[in-house]
Amino acid sequence: MFEVRNRKSTVLYLLMLIIQILTACTNVNADDIDKPTLEEDNTKISVLDKNGAPITGDYIVRLYNDIKDNKQETSSEIKTTIDLNLQQEVAKEIDKIPNMVKYSFVIMNPYNGEIIAISENSEDTYIPSSTFKGISSAIFLDTHIIEKDTIVDSSPYSIGNTTVRSLLPLNKEEISFEEALIKKCNPVFARLASETGKENFFSYLNEFGIKIPDNKSDFTDEELALYSIGQVEVTPMEMALAYSVLANGGNSVQPELILQLDSSELDKSEKSVISAKTSEQMKELLHKCNAQNKNSNSDIAGIYGISSDQDSNIISCNFAGISSLESNSQFCLVVSISTSEASQSITEQLSTAVNNIMDIIINNNI
Question: In whole angstroms, what is the distance from residue 230 CA to residue 233 CA?
Protein backbone atom coordinates (compact mmCIF):
# COMPACT_ATOMS: atom_id res chain seq x y z
CA MET A 1 0.00 0.00 0.00
CA PHE A 2 1.13 3.54 -0.63
CA GLU A 3 2.12 5.38 2.52
CA VAL A 4 3.25 8.93 1.73
CA ARG A 5 3.69 11.47 4.49
CA ASN A 6 1.52 14.60 4.69
CA ARG A 7 -1.04 13.36 2.17
CA LYS A 8 -4.80 13.23 2.60
CA SER A 9 -5.97 9.65 3.06
CA THR A 10 -8.62 10.15 0.39
CA VAL A 11 -6.08 10.76 -2.38
CA LEU A 12 -3.95 7.82 -1.31
CA TYR A 13 -7.04 5.61 -1.33
CA LEU A 14 -7.88 6.76 -4.85
CA LEU A 15 -4.34 5.95 -5.93
CA MET A 16 -4.64 2.37 -4.75
CA LEU A 17 -8.00 2.02 -6.45
CA ILE A 18 -6.60 3.22 -9.77
CA ILE A 19 -3.83 0.63 -9.65
CA GLN A 20 -6.34 -2.22 -9.31
CA ILE A 21 -7.69 -1.58 -12.81
CA LEU A 22 -4.40 -1.56 -14.67
CA THR A 23 -4.30 -5.26 -15.55
CA ALA A 24 -7.69 -5.01 -17.21
CA CYS A 25 -6.82 -1.77 -18.98
CA THR A 26 -3.48 -2.88 -20.43
CA ASN A 27 -4.97 -5.21 -23.02
CA VAL A 28 -8.26 -3.45 -23.61
CA ASN A 29 -8.91 -1.28 -26.64
CA ALA A 30 -10.77 1.76 -25.41
CA ASP A 31 -12.62 2.10 -28.72
CA ASP A 32 -14.25 -1.31 -28.30
CA ILE A 33 -16.04 -0.67 -25.03
CA ASP A 34 -18.73 1.67 -23.84
CA LYS A 35 -18.07 4.31 -21.25
CA PRO A 36 -18.88 2.79 -17.85
CA THR A 37 -21.50 4.60 -15.86
CA LEU A 38 -22.78 4.50 -12.33
CA GLU A 39 -26.24 5.58 -11.39
CA GLU A 40 -27.12 6.74 -7.92
CA ASP A 41 -29.76 9.32 -6.99
CA ASN A 42 -30.52 9.61 -10.73
CA THR A 43 -26.95 10.80 -11.42
CA LYS A 44 -24.85 8.94 -14.01
CA ILE A 45 -21.10 9.04 -13.58
CA SER A 46 -18.54 8.12 -16.27
CA VAL A 47 -14.95 7.42 -15.23
CA LEU A 48 -12.42 8.33 -17.92
CA ASP A 49 -8.72 8.77 -18.45
CA LYS A 50 -7.38 12.26 -19.21
CA ASN A 51 -8.13 11.86 -22.93
CA GLY A 52 -11.68 10.59 -22.43
CA ALA A 53 -10.94 6.86 -22.74
CA PRO A 54 -13.11 4.81 -20.36
CA ILE A 55 -11.61 3.19 -17.30
CA THR A 56 -13.37 -0.02 -16.33
CA GLY A 57 -13.39 -2.27 -13.30
CA ASP A 58 -15.20 -3.08 -10.07
CA TYR A 59 -13.23 -0.37 -8.35
CA ILE A 60 -15.49 2.25 -10.00
CA VAL A 61 -18.20 1.85 -7.39
CA ARG A 62 -15.75 2.49 -4.58
CA LEU A 63 -14.13 5.35 -6.50
CA TYR A 64 -17.50 6.97 -7.08
CA ASN A 65 -18.53 6.60 -3.46
CA ASP A 66 -15.26 8.07 -2.26
CA ILE A 67 -15.61 11.10 -4.53
CA LYS A 68 -19.24 11.47 -3.49
CA ASP A 69 -18.06 11.71 0.11
CA ASN A 70 -15.98 14.67 -1.02
CA LYS A 71 -19.05 16.42 -2.49
CA GLN A 72 -18.13 15.73 -6.10
CA GLU A 73 -21.23 13.66 -6.92
CA THR A 74 -22.78 16.38 -9.10
CA SER A 75 -20.23 15.83 -11.87
CA SER A 76 -21.36 13.64 -14.77
CA GLU A 77 -17.79 12.60 -15.61
CA ILE A 78 -14.72 11.87 -13.54
CA LYS A 79 -11.50 12.37 -15.46
CA THR A 80 -8.33 10.90 -14.04
CA THR A 81 -4.81 12.10 -14.76
CA ILE A 82 -3.92 8.69 -16.25
CA ASP A 83 -3.08 8.47 -19.95
CA LEU A 84 -4.06 4.88 -20.79
CA ASN A 85 -2.53 4.94 -24.27
CA LEU A 86 0.82 6.11 -22.94
CA GLN A 87 0.63 3.62 -20.10
CA GLN A 88 0.06 0.72 -22.48
CA GLU A 89 2.93 1.80 -24.75
CA VAL A 90 5.31 2.03 -21.81
CA ALA A 91 4.30 -1.43 -20.56
CA LYS A 92 4.86 -2.93 -24.02
CA GLU A 93 8.31 -1.36 -24.21
CA ILE A 94 9.40 -2.76 -20.86
CA ASP A 95 7.95 -6.18 -21.76
CA LYS A 96 10.53 -6.42 -24.56
CA ILE A 97 13.29 -7.02 -22.00
CA PRO A 98 13.99 -10.80 -21.93
CA ASN A 99 13.52 -13.08 -18.91
CA MET A 100 11.26 -10.55 -17.22
CA VAL A 101 9.90 -11.61 -13.82
CA LYS A 102 8.15 -8.37 -12.88
CA TYR A 103 8.37 -4.66 -13.39
CA SER A 104 6.93 -1.43 -12.08
CA PHE A 105 6.92 2.16 -13.28
CA VAL A 106 5.56 5.59 -12.47
CA ILE A 107 5.48 8.65 -14.70
CA MET A 108 4.59 11.86 -12.88
CA ASN A 109 4.43 15.58 -13.54
CA PRO A 110 6.96 16.87 -10.98
CA TYR A 111 5.31 20.28 -10.71
CA ASN A 112 1.73 19.34 -9.86
CA GLY A 113 2.02 15.67 -8.86
CA GLU A 114 -0.27 14.39 -11.63
CA ILE A 115 0.26 10.66 -12.17
CA ILE A 116 0.43 10.21 -15.93
CA ALA A 117 1.07 6.46 -16.04
CA ILE A 118 1.54 3.78 -13.42
CA SER A 119 1.95 0.00 -13.43
CA GLU A 120 -0.09 -2.44 -11.41
CA ASN A 121 2.86 -3.41 -9.18
CA SER A 122 3.78 0.12 -8.18
CA GLU A 123 2.45 -0.29 -4.65
CA ASP A 124 5.05 -3.01 -4.00
CA THR A 125 8.31 -2.13 -2.28
CA TYR A 126 11.68 -2.70 -3.92
CA ILE A 127 15.37 -1.94 -3.31
CA PRO A 128 16.21 1.26 -5.23
CA SER A 129 19.99 0.68 -4.98
CA SER A 130 22.06 3.50 -6.49
CA THR A 131 19.03 5.47 -7.72
CA PHE A 132 18.57 6.46 -4.06
CA LYS A 133 21.91 8.24 -4.19
CA GLY A 134 20.19 11.08 -6.03
CA ILE A 135 18.19 11.78 -2.87
CA SER A 136 21.18 11.33 -0.56
CA SER A 137 23.23 13.68 -2.73
CA ALA A 138 20.60 16.39 -2.47
CA ILE A 139 20.66 16.08 1.32
CA PHE A 140 24.45 16.39 1.47
CA LEU A 141 24.46 19.42 -0.82
CA ASP A 142 21.57 21.12 0.92
CA THR A 143 23.15 20.75 4.36
CA HIS A 144 26.40 22.19 2.94
CA ILE A 145 28.40 19.21 4.10
CA ILE A 146 29.95 19.11 0.64
CA GLU A 147 29.94 20.93 -2.68
CA LYS A 148 30.01 19.26 -6.07
CA ASP A 149 33.77 19.69 -6.36
CA THR A 150 34.62 18.76 -2.75
CA ILE A 151 37.33 16.10 -2.58
CA VAL A 152 36.10 13.03 -0.70
CA ASP A 153 37.58 9.75 0.50
CA SER A 154 36.47 6.73 -1.55
CA SER A 155 38.41 4.08 0.39
CA PRO A 156 36.48 1.26 2.13
CA TYR A 157 34.53 2.53 5.14
CA SER A 158 34.19 0.38 8.25
CA ILE A 159 31.27 1.04 10.55
CA GLY A 160 30.33 -1.39 13.31
CA ASN A 161 30.62 -4.88 11.87
CA THR A 162 30.11 -3.65 8.32
CA THR A 163 32.65 -2.57 5.73
CA VAL A 164 31.22 -0.53 2.87
CA ARG A 165 33.14 -0.90 -0.39
CA SER A 166 32.87 0.62 -3.83
CA LEU A 167 31.47 -1.77 -6.43
CA LEU A 168 33.22 -0.03 -9.32
CA PRO A 169 37.02 0.14 -9.65
CA LEU A 170 38.54 3.54 -8.89
CA ASN A 171 42.02 4.67 -9.89
CA LYS A 172 42.46 6.80 -6.79
CA GLU A 173 41.05 7.12 -3.29
CA GLU A 174 40.52 10.88 -3.35
CA ILE A 175 37.87 11.94 -5.85
CA SER A 176 35.38 14.78 -6.22
CA PHE A 177 31.87 14.29 -4.90
CA GLU A 178 30.57 14.67 -8.45
CA GLU A 179 32.72 11.73 -9.53
CA ALA A 180 31.63 9.77 -6.47
CA LEU A 181 27.99 10.10 -7.56
CA ILE A 182 28.75 9.23 -11.17
CA LYS A 183 30.77 6.18 -10.04
CA LYS A 184 28.11 5.34 -7.38
CA CYS A 185 30.84 5.10 -4.75
CA ASN A 186 29.24 3.56 -1.67
CA PRO A 187 31.91 4.47 0.94
CA VAL A 188 31.59 8.18 0.14
CA PHE A 189 27.84 8.13 0.76
CA ALA A 190 28.15 6.12 3.96
CA ARG A 191 30.73 8.57 5.34
CA LEU A 192 28.68 11.63 4.43
CA ALA A 193 25.51 10.13 5.92
CA SER A 194 27.36 9.60 9.19
CA GLU A 195 28.51 13.23 9.10
CA THR A 196 24.95 14.38 8.38
CA GLY A 197 23.61 12.48 11.38
CA LYS A 198 20.63 10.16 11.69
CA GLU A 199 18.13 12.74 12.87
CA ASN A 200 18.94 15.21 10.12
CA PHE A 201 19.17 12.60 7.36
CA PHE A 202 15.87 10.90 8.20
CA SER A 203 14.13 14.25 8.66
CA TYR A 204 15.05 15.12 5.07
CA LEU A 205 13.83 11.74 3.81
CA ASN A 206 10.50 12.32 5.47
CA GLU A 207 10.15 15.68 3.71
CA PHE A 208 11.06 14.05 0.39
CA GLY A 209 8.11 11.67 0.84
CA ILE A 210 10.10 8.57 1.84
CA LYS A 211 8.32 6.70 4.64
CA ILE A 212 10.58 6.13 7.62
CA PRO A 213 9.79 3.58 10.37
CA ASP A 214 8.66 5.09 13.65
CA ASN A 215 11.66 3.61 15.45
CA LYS A 216 14.18 5.60 13.41
CA SER A 217 15.85 6.82 16.61
CA ASP A 218 16.81 3.21 17.29
CA PHE A 219 18.53 2.79 13.92
CA THR A 220 22.18 1.82 14.07
CA ASP A 221 24.96 3.61 12.23
CA GLU A 222 25.12 0.62 9.89
CA GLU A 223 21.45 1.07 8.99
CA LEU A 224 22.02 4.76 8.29
CA ALA A 225 24.83 3.80 5.93
CA LEU A 226 22.58 1.30 4.15
CA TYR A 227 19.89 3.94 3.70
CA SER A 228 22.37 6.36 2.15
CA ILE A 229 23.39 3.89 -0.57
CA GLY A 230 19.86 2.75 -1.37
CA GLN A 231 19.72 -0.59 0.45
CA VAL A 232 16.25 0.11 1.79
CA GLU A 233 12.69 -0.79 0.80
CA VAL A 234 10.66 1.96 -0.88
CA THR A 235 7.79 2.15 -3.37
CA PRO A 236 8.14 3.54 -6.89
CA MET A 237 5.65 6.25 -5.91
CA GLU A 238 7.86 7.39 -3.05
CA MET A 239 10.82 7.60 -5.43
CA ALA A 240 8.76 9.55 -7.96
CA LEU A 241 7.72 12.05 -5.29
CA ALA A 242 11.33 12.43 -4.13
CA TYR A 243 12.72 12.93 -7.63
CA SER A 244 9.97 15.46 -8.31
CA VAL A 245 11.51 17.58 -5.56
CA LEU A 246 14.83 17.45 -7.40
CA ALA A 247 13.13 18.52 -10.63
CA ASN A 248 10.78 21.31 -9.59
CA GLY A 249 13.03 23.67 -7.69
CA GLY A 250 12.95 21.88 -4.36
CA ASN A 251 9.27 21.74 -3.33
CA SER A 252 7.32 18.75 -2.07
CA VAL A 253 4.46 17.54 -4.25
CA GLN A 254 1.42 15.40 -3.55
CA PRO A 255 0.18 12.68 -5.92
CA GLU A 256 -2.86 13.75 -7.95
CA LEU A 257 -5.15 11.25 -9.67
CA ILE A 258 -8.32 13.12 -10.52
CA LEU A 259 -8.71 15.95 -13.03
CA GLN A 260 -11.43 18.62 -12.86
CA LEU A 261 -11.93 18.50 -9.11
CA ASP A 262 -12.95 21.76 -7.49
CA SER A 263 -9.70 23.37 -6.38
CA SER A 264 -11.15 23.86 -2.91
CA GLU A 265 -11.24 20.08 -2.49
CA LEU A 266 -7.50 19.69 -3.12
CA ASP A 267 -4.68 20.16 -0.67
CA LYS A 268 -2.35 22.38 -2.68
CA SER A 269 0.06 23.21 0.11
CA GLU A 270 3.71 23.26 -0.94
CA LYS A 271 6.69 22.90 1.32
CA SER A 272 10.28 23.64 0.48
CA VAL A 273 12.40 20.52 0.97
CA ILE A 274 15.68 21.68 -0.58
CA SER A 275 16.82 25.02 -1.94
CA ALA A 276 16.39 26.02 -5.56
CA LYS A 277 20.20 26.04 -5.82
CA THR A 278 20.40 22.42 -4.67
CA SER A 279 17.68 21.48 -7.16
CA GLU A 280 19.64 23.06 -10.02
CA GLN A 281 22.83 21.34 -8.91
CA MET A 282 21.07 17.98 -8.84
CA LYS A 283 19.67 18.46 -12.33
CA GLU A 284 23.20 19.01 -13.61
CA LEU A 285 24.57 16.04 -11.69
CA LEU A 286 21.78 13.71 -12.86
CA HIS A 287 22.43 14.78 -16.44
CA LYS A 288 26.11 13.90 -16.07
CA CYS A 289 25.22 10.54 -14.48
CA ASN A 290 22.98 9.57 -17.37
CA ALA A 291 25.54 10.74 -19.94
CA GLN A 292 27.85 7.93 -18.72
CA ASN A 293 25.48 5.27 -20.03
CA LYS A 294 25.69 3.81 -23.49
CA ASN A 295 23.20 5.33 -25.95
CA SER A 296 22.05 7.83 -23.31
CA ASN A 297 19.21 10.18 -24.27
CA SER A 298 19.98 13.87 -23.73
CA ASP A 299 16.31 14.53 -22.91
CA ILE A 300 16.48 12.68 -19.61
CA ALA A 301 18.71 12.95 -16.56
CA GLY A 302 18.92 10.18 -14.01
CA ILE A 303 20.68 7.29 -12.31
CA TYR A 304 20.68 3.53 -12.87
CA GLY A 305 21.13 1.00 -10.10
CA ILE A 306 21.40 -2.76 -9.93
CA SER A 307 20.95 -5.31 -7.15
CA SER A 308 20.60 -9.07 -6.80
CA ASP A 309 18.85 -11.59 -4.60
CA GLN A 310 21.26 -14.49 -4.11
CA ASP A 311 18.54 -16.76 -2.72
CA SER A 312 16.28 -16.47 -5.77
CA ASN A 313 18.89 -15.54 -8.41
CA ILE A 314 16.71 -12.58 -9.35
CA ILE A 315 18.55 -9.58 -10.77
CA SER A 316 16.91 -6.16 -10.40
CA CYS A 317 17.78 -3.04 -12.34
CA ASN A 318 16.30 0.37 -11.57
CA PHE A 319 16.16 3.84 -13.04
CA ALA A 320 15.03 7.10 -11.51
CA GLY A 321 15.19 10.33 -13.47
CA ILE A 322 13.69 13.57 -14.62
CA SER A 323 13.41 15.48 -17.87
CA SER A 324 16.74 17.16 -18.50
CA LEU A 325 17.50 20.84 -19.00
CA GLU A 326 17.48 20.29 -22.77
CA SER A 327 14.05 18.64 -22.84
CA ASN A 328 10.79 20.40 -23.64
CA SER A 329 8.87 17.79 -21.62
CA GLN A 330 8.28 17.95 -17.87
CA PHE A 331 8.17 14.57 -16.17
CA CYS A 332 9.64 12.29 -13.56
CA LEU A 333 10.22 8.62 -14.46
CA VAL A 334 10.84 5.69 -12.11
CA VAL A 335 11.28 2.16 -13.49
CA SER A 336 12.24 -1.09 -11.78
CA ILE A 337 12.66 -4.44 -13.53
CA SER A 338 13.52 -7.90 -12.23
CA THR A 339 14.84 -10.67 -14.48
CA SER A 340 15.46 -14.36 -13.90
CA GLU A 341 18.90 -14.49 -15.50
CA ALA A 342 22.02 -12.55 -14.64
CA SER A 343 23.22 -10.51 -17.57
CA GLN A 344 26.04 -8.02 -17.95
CA SER A 345 23.79 -6.11 -20.32
CA ILE A 346 20.77 -5.69 -18.04
CA THR A 347 21.55 -2.00 -17.46
CA GLU A 348 22.00 -1.52 -21.19
CA GLN A 349 18.66 -3.25 -21.83
CA LEU A 350 16.88 -1.02 -19.33
CA SER A 351 18.68 2.02 -20.75
CA THR A 352 17.32 1.18 -24.19
CA ALA A 353 13.82 0.83 -22.76
CA VAL A 354 14.14 4.15 -20.90
CA ASN A 355 15.29 5.92 -24.07
CA ASN A 356 12.34 4.49 -25.98
CA ILE A 357 9.97 5.47 -23.17
CA MET A 358 11.38 8.98 -23.45
CA ASP A 359 10.47 8.99 -27.15
CA ILE A 360 6.98 7.75 -26.29
CA ILE A 361 6.56 10.55 -23.74
CA ILE A 362 7.65 13.18 -26.26
CA ASN A 363 5.37 11.75 -28.95
CA ASN A 364 2.47 11.96 -26.51
CA ASN A 365 3.29 15.62 -25.79
CA ILE A 366 3.75 15.06 -22.06
Answer: 8
Residue intervals of the chain classified under CATH 3.40.710.10 are 86-363
6 three-class SS:
coil
The residue type found at 26 is: T
Query: CATH number for the 86-363 domain, one of 3.40.710.10, 3.40.50.300, 3.40.50.2000, 3.90.10.10?
Result: 3.40.710.10
Alpha helices in 49-197 (DSSP H): 59-69, 84-95, 133-142, 177-182, 186-196
| Rounded average pLDDT over 56-77 | 49
Classify 195 in phi/psi space as left (phi over 0), alpha (psi -120 to 50) or beta: alpha
Give the model's pLDDT for residue 27: 45
Q: Which of 237, 250, 304 is nearest to 282 (CA)?
A: 250
Burial class, 279, CB count within 10 angstroms (exposed 0-12 / middle 13-18 / buried 19+): buried
Residue 295 — pLDDT band, cuts 50, 70, 90?
low
CA distances from 300 to 150, 231, 250, 282, 363 (A): 26, 24, 18, 13, 15
Identify how many contiguous H helices and E strands the chain contains and give both numbers.
Answer: 12, 13
CB-side neighbour CA atoms (13 Å) of 192: 30
Using alpha carbons, list the distances in angstroms from residue 61 to 38, 39, 76, 175.
Answer: 7, 10, 14, 57
Q: Measure the CA dihedral 53/121/238/351, to 10°.
A: -90
What global pTM score does this model have? Answer: 0.82
Pairing of strands 77-80, 43-48: parallel
The amino acid at 331:
F
Cβ contacts of residue 134 below 8 Å, gap of 6+? Answer: 181, 242, 243, 246, 282, 285, 286, 289, 302, 303, 320
List pLDDT tens digits, range 127-147: 999 999 999 999 999 999 999
